[in-house]
Write a structure and sequence with these properties.
With about 575 residues, this protein is α+β, with helices and mostly antiparallel strands. The protein contains 16 helices and 25 strands. The protein folds into two domains: about 300 residues, Alpha/Beta hydrolase fold, catalytic domain (Rossmann fold, 3-Layer(aba) Sandwich); about 200 residues, Galactose-binding domain-like (Jelly Rolls, Sandwich), CATH 2.60.120. The chain starts with 14 loop residues before the first helix and ends with a strand.
C-alpha cells in the first residue's frame, strides 16, 4: 500500500478496508466492550457481540512436516456437549497481503451456522513461511496436513469438512478435493480450472494480469521452479516445462477424481474475467457429473464476492453458505436449498438473475454473421447474414501501440465500475482505421440478446513472427457514437505462420448482453492490447492483411436472438 493509503496493485485493499479488518481481528481476539465498540463505525458491533457469545476465535500456527509454518485462525462454537461435533469449513486464503484475514468478515456468519472454521495462509503468503508454489503439489499436501491437524481438535466432525476459497484459495480448494476424499464439498469464487489456458489464451499471454499477480506474490518468496516459469512466461517461451507446471495445477486434469467421488462443486466467475479462462470454467462445469452449480456475474476478477468476504450479502458467498449447509448440515445460509444449475447476470445489470438447468440449456443457438467488405459509400466493413462474402482484404498496421479500444483500461477497477452500472465508454468513430479493421451490423430492428458462446473465423497474413490480433465485439449506439464492450479474445500467430495467409478459428469469451433497438454489433480487430502485450517501440511497423478467401470465408458466430 502507498503512503496515502491507496492500493499499489489492483488486487490490494485500501486503507479503510485494512482498518476494518484490524478492528474485527482485535474484537475477535479480545471481545471486550471497548474492542467491540470500535466496530460501531462500520455498523458491526452487534454482529461481533453475538459472535463472542456463541464462538471462540484464536490464531494458531500449523507446522508442516518439512518445517514450514502456516499462519491460521480457528473459530470453534462454544458450549458444545461432550463429544458433540460440528460441520467444518476450511478457507485457504486468496492472494492478498492480509492472507487468511481476508475471511474475517465471514467467520461470524459461519459461526452462527454452527461451523468450526479454519482459515489459513498458504506457504509463502502473508505470515506463513516457506516458498510460493502456486497451488502446486506441495500446497495440496499442506491442505491434507491441515485436515490431519483439524480432525484432532474438539468439535470437528471428520466426516463433514468442506473447503471454500476465493481466487487463489479457490484453486487450492478444488485441487485439494481431487486428492483428499475427506473434503465433502467445495465452493470456489473466481475459480480457475485450466491454468495453461489462463496463462496463454489462443497462444497469447495475459501479460498485464500476470505481472500484477507476480508483484503481489513477491518474486523473492517464490520457489525456484516458479521463478523459472516466471522468466519463461516473460520471454514468451511455451515449452513442456511450462505446460507440466500448469497441468499439475489445473483442476480439469482431475475431472475423473471429482466425478468418481461425486464431489459437490460450486464455482463462480465473471463475464469480463481478466485473470482466469472463463470458457475453461464453463467446460469444466459442463463435464462434472456430480452435484454442481455455476454462477457468472457482471464484472472482473474478484469484484462480485468482495462484499461477501467483508460480511455483507453477495451472491457468491450467499450461495456458498447454502452449498455447505446442504452438503455438511450447517445453518449459515438463509434456509433455502441450493440450486444445481447455471445462474447468471446480464451485462451490465448485477441485479438481474437468469437461471437454467445447464449451460447447454442456457446458451442460445449461434447465428452466423459474415464479415463483408464495405457497402457502397461506406468505409467500414459489414457484419451480414446470408451468403458468405469472399475476396475482400483489409490491411492494418501493427505499430506496437494499438488503438483506444482495450479489454479493460484498468484491471479489476473497470469491472468494478461495470458492477455499479458504469461500463467504460468507447468512441469507435475515433478509431484510426489504419490501425484496426471495423465491421458493423445495420441498426437492429428490435432489442436483441447475446447469450452463450461465440466464435470468430478470420484469415490473416501477418508480416512478422508472433503477430497478435485482438477481436472486440462492441454494442454501438450510432446516434450517440458511444459503445460498450460485449466480449473479446486475442489470437497470436506462430513464427512459422509469418508471411503466409493463415485461417484462425477461435472462441471469444462467452457473454450475456442485451442490445437496445437501433444499436449495432460492431467487431473491431486490432493488433495490440496492454492486457496481452507490452508496448513495443523498437519493432518496425509491419502490416497484417485481414482477408476472406473463398472456401474459408471469415465469419462471426454469435448467439443473437430477440429479447422475449
Amino acid at each position: 500500500m502507498s503512503a496515502d493509503g491507496t492500493p499499489q496493485t489492483p488486487f490490494e485493499l485500501g486503507a479503510d478496508d485494512h482498518a476494518k479488518l484490524d478492528a474485527v481481528r482485535e474484537a475477535l481476539l479480545d471481545p471486550s466492550p471497548r474492542r467491540i465498540g470500535r466496530l460501531d463505525q462500520w455498523g458491526l458491533a452487534d454482529e461481533y457481540e453475538v459472535y463472542a457469545e456463541i464462538a471462540r476465535y484464536s490464531e494458531v500456527s500449523l507446522a508442516m512436516e518439512d518445517g514450514t509454518v502456516l499462519d491460521a485462525s480457528l473459530s470453534v462454537p462454544k458450549n458444545l456437549a461432550p463429544g458433540q461435533v460440528c460441520p467444518t469449513v476450511v478457507l485457504p486464503a486468496p492472494l492478498i497481503s492480509v492472507g487468511h484475514r481476508a475471511y474475517l468478515g465471514m467467520i461470524s456468519r459461519w459461526a452462527r451456522g454452527g461451523y468450526v472454521v479454519l482459515a489459513y495462509s498458504q506457504r509463502g503468503l502473508a505470515k506463513s513461511t516457506g516458498e510460493i508454489h502456486v497451488a502446486g503439489p506441495q500446497d495440496v499436501a499442506d491442505a491434507t496436513e491441515v485436515i490431519n491437524w483439524l480432525i484432532q481438535q474438539d468439535g470437528v466432525d471428520a466426516d463433514r469438512i468442506g473447503f471454500f476459497g476465493a481466487s487463489y484459495g479457490a484453486g487450492t480448494s478444488l485441487l485439494a478435493a481431487a486428492q483428499d476424499p475427506r473434503i465433502k464439498a467445495v465452493a470456489g469464487a473466481s475459480a480457475w480450472t485450466d491454468l495453461f489456458a489462463s496463462l496463454y489464451e489462443n497462444g497469447t499471454r495475459h501479460l498485464k494480469a500476470f505481472e500484477a499477480l507476480v508483484a503481489l506474490f513477491g518474486e523473492d518468496r517464490c520457489s525456484e521452479e516458479f521463478r523459472g516459469i516466471i522468466q519463461k512466461i516473460r520471454a514468451n517461451t511455451i515449452d513442456d516445462e511450462v505446460r507440466k507446471f500448469a497441468e499439475a495445477r489445473s483442476p480439469k486434469n482431475y475431472l475423473n477424481a471429482y466425478n468418481d467421488a461425486v464431489t459437490p462443486i460450486l464455482m463462480t466467475t465473471t463475464w469480463h474475467e481478466t485473470i482466469f479462462s472463463v470458457p475453461a470454467v464453463i467446460d469444466f462445469h459442463s463435464r462434472l457429473t456430480g452435484p454442481k452449480a455455476l454462477l457468472v456475474q457482471v464484472g472482473d476478477h474478484g469484484n462480485a464476492e468482495l462484499p461477501g468476504l467483508f460480511g455483507l450479502s453477495a451472491k457468491p458467498t450467499d450461495m456458498a453458505y447454502r452449498w455447505m449447509d446442504h452438503h455438511l448440515g450447517g445453518s449459515a445460509g438463509d434456509g433455502a436449498a441450493p440450486r444445481f444449475d447455471v445462474r447468471s447476470e446480464y451485462m451490465f445489470n448485477p441485479l438481474s438473475d437468469v437461471r437454467h438447468p445447464s449451460w447447454a440449456d442456457y446458451a442460445l443457438p449461434k447465428k452466423r454473421l459474415h464479415l463483408a467488405d464495405a457497402a457502397s459509400g461506406k468505409s467500414d466493413g459489414q457484419l451480414v447474414e446470408g451468403t458468405a462474402a469472399a475476396g475482400w482484404t483489409r490491411s492494418v498496421k501493427a505499430t506496437g501501440a494499438g488503438t483506444d479500444i482495450v479489454v479493460a483500461p484498468q484491471l479489476i477497477q473497470t469491472g468494478l465500475a461495470e458492477r455499479l452500472g458504469l461500463p467504460h465508454v468507447y468512441k469507435t468513430a475515433d478509431i484510426d482505421r489504419g490501425l484496426a479493421a471495423v465491421f458493423s451490423t445495420t441498426p437492429l430492428e428490435k432489442a436483441m440478446r447475446v447469450r452463450g458462446d461465440l466464435e470468430l473465423r478470420v484469415t490473416v497474413n501477418p508480416q512478422q513472427a508472433d503477430a497478435t490480433i485482438v477481436a472486440y465485439l462492441l454494442d454501438h449506439n450510432p446516434v450517440t457514437g458511444r459503445a460498450y464492450i460485449v466480449t473479446h479474445a486475442p489470437y497470436t500467430f506462430t513464427a512459422e505462420q509469418a508471411g503466409q495467409a493463415t485461417t484462425a478459428t477461435f472462441p471469444l469469451q462467452p457473454a450475456d448482453y442485451v442490445l437496445a433497438k437501433g444499436h449495432q454489433l460492431q467487431l473491431v480487430i486490432d493488433t495490440h492490447d496492454p492486457l496481452f502485450t507490452a508496448p513495443n517501440t523498437t519493432t518496425a511497423v509491419y502490416t497484417l492483411d485481414i482477408t476472406s478467401p473463398e472456401g474459408t470465408e471469415s465469419y462471426l458466430d454469435v448467439p443473437l436472438h430477440p429479447v422475449n
